Amino acid sequence: MGNHSDGSPNHSGTVATAGQNEVEKFQDPGIPPHRLRLADTDPRAAKKAERQVALLFGTSVVGTLIFLVSYFAIDLGNDSSIATIRLQNALLGIGTAFAMLGIGTGIVHWAKALMPDHEVSEERHAIRTEEDRQAAVRIVDDIVEETGIKRRPLIRNTLLGAVALAPLPALAIFGDLGPRPDFALAHTLWAPAPDGKLKRLARDPDGTPIKAADVTIGSAFHVIPEGLNELSEGKLNEKAKSVVLLMRLDPNELHPSPGRESWAYNGIVAYSKICTHVGCPVALYEQQTHHLLCPCHQSTFDLTQQCKVIFGPASRPLPQLPIAVDAEGYLVATSDFHEPVGPSYWEREQHVLNNNA
């Protein structure tokens, strides 16, 4: 009691002090007892789990086959109905879902029901090059042995089949994305005909030709090549890369670069409607500022500066279509675009040089 006789807080026990009741060492609780699963003690349960895993892998194979059959067997032509398109999309989705879920759930069920689940605690040792390599090899061998894949050929074979077929839907989709951009985007229907006849600019969608007198200052037209609507096949693809915006400004507001002075006619200019960012349609024209806006990611182009990018993620101006007027007063394209339309791709710069040569 001698230490507490002064009644001070530090000696009376009312204030805790550093080190008071300190536990010298944290006690390791150890690994909890391992609880055996039914498959660990009953061979019939293990065989049942094996069949379930194989069934899930087989489901993945069936899903892949559903995808492939619906992709290749259902023909979507120009006259395909909405019901046919919906049927194919539904089957493609169902097939992909079963293909992916079959593999995923099969592996999870395999791990939870058949692979060893006991916890292991090992001391960390200093890394020694050769011994560490050998230890890593032993670990890999132990993992392969613990999976039981050597002892369970049914699981092994169904897994190999599911994994081998699973990438096929992705390959089919990638192969159907379209032709290579160096073939598809480098040339459009605006190129003159083999006999040298120039293509007239026509209104979208009715395809009627446009006279220069029809285009007033501040107006904007969505334009397609004359004759596009008469195409029997490939019409949508050709339209997607040939669509143009036609506008008229005061000629004094235009600032063409050297060599482009003749690409416009009395302030009338034509530019590709395909945004150079990711290919969305540039459909908004602000006549007071002479800005073109892509609604997808807000890329903004200045019409007075050859559609130079002034805002947004696009990295290149919109390609300009050289135009003139024929003897009847209709607007015509004097040539194709001098560069590929749309987003960038690896070989684009080479095609710019070839088109300008």
UniProtKB/TrEMBL annotation:
Entry keyword Nucleotidyltransferase: no
Membrane topology: Multi-pass membrane protein
Compartments, record wording: Cell membrane
Domain Rieske: 268-332
Alphabetized UniProt keyword annotations: 2Fe-2S, Cell membrane, Disulfide bond, Electron transport, Iron, Iron-sulfur, Membrane, Metal-binding, Oxidoreductase, Respiratory chain, Transmembrane, Transmembrane helix, Transport
UniProt key word ATP-binding: no
SUPFAM superfamilies listed in its UniProt record: ISP domain (SSF50022)
Top-level division of the source organism's lineage: Bacteria
Gene3D superfamilies per record: Rieske [2Fe-2S] iron-sulphur domain (2.102.10.10)
Signal peptide: none
Membrane-spanning ranges: 53-74, 90-111, 158-175
Function: Iron-sulfur subunit of the cytochrome bc1 complex, an essential component of the respiratory electron transport chain required for ATP synthesis. The bc1 complex catalyzes the oxidation of menaquinol and the reduction of cytochrome c in the respiratory chain. The bc1 complex operates through a Q-cycle mechanism that couples electron transfer to generation of the proton gradient that drives ATP synthesis.
Homology family: Belongs to the Rieske iron-sulfur protein family.
Protein name, entry field: Cytochrome bc1 complex Rieske iron-sulfur subunit
Organism encoding this protein: Arthrobacter humicola
